[in-house]
Amino acid sequence: LYDTPDIWSVCELADSVRRRLHGDVGYYNINRHLNYSNVCALSCKFCEFYAKAGDEKAYTRDLEYIADQARQAVEAGATEIHSVGGLHPTLPFSYYTDLVRTIRDTARALGSDLHVKAFTAVEIVHLARIAKVYRVDDRRAGIRWVLERLKEAGLGSLPGGGAEVFDDRVHDEAFKGKIRSDVWLDVHEVAHELGLNSNATILYGHIEQRAERLVHMDMLR
What is the pLDDT of residues 143-153, one digit of tens each? Predict the structure, then answer.
């Protein structure tokens, strides 16, 4: 599939699988994106989003802002809010459960069952660390603790960000400091065990090689 110059045949193959699995039905949601803060402890080479505390462009949203965004989302007909942010070094764990709960409660008050998809695997590990429940020798326990409380607050699923490319060479050169593939997969496996759905992204077209893209997809499978 990577080698062929015939992209239209690749699309036809994909469509034939889709029709075999789902017939002539397609699905979509109406999504509102909400970044709660761009302050981040990391400095990944590819990222133009992050800011350091005190930077002119740095921001962190309060719960009043979050509630207003949820209200606007419902009024615009959204079915989902997708919320991610930087690894803020000083926000307490309670901020994140309050964020999810605020979105859920605001939407419910307006008669909406707005789905909350929030926090990449990288953020989940960060939350376990700031809550002081993350242990290297039993990282899944801390991850589970965080996800259980977020789910109780109203979290419905995890986005797929932070996966980038599952390869240690690429990781160390392009986004050193982020969790590696084994930890990322741990977060999503624990989420699935708790009944939370998730997806996965791939960030490609930089320093990775084709073989590394294939390994990435094979690890997800």
Answer: 999 999 999 99
HSE toward the beta carbon, residue 210, CA cutoff 13 A:
3
Alpha helices in the chain (DSSP H): 7-22, 63-75, 93-109, 121-130, 139-153, 168-174, 181-193, 210-220
What the block records as the tokens of 48 is 């133009």
Rounded to 10 deg, the angle between the 181-193 and 139-153 helix axes is 50
CA atoms within 13 A on the CB side of 145: 17
Q: How far apart are CA 47 and CA 40, in angstroms?
A: 11
Q: Is the pTM of this model over 0.85?
A: yes
Separation between Cα atoms, residue 24 and residue 29, nearest integer Å = 17
Q: What is the pLDDT of residues 20-43, one digit of tens each?
A: 999 999 888 999 999 999 998 876
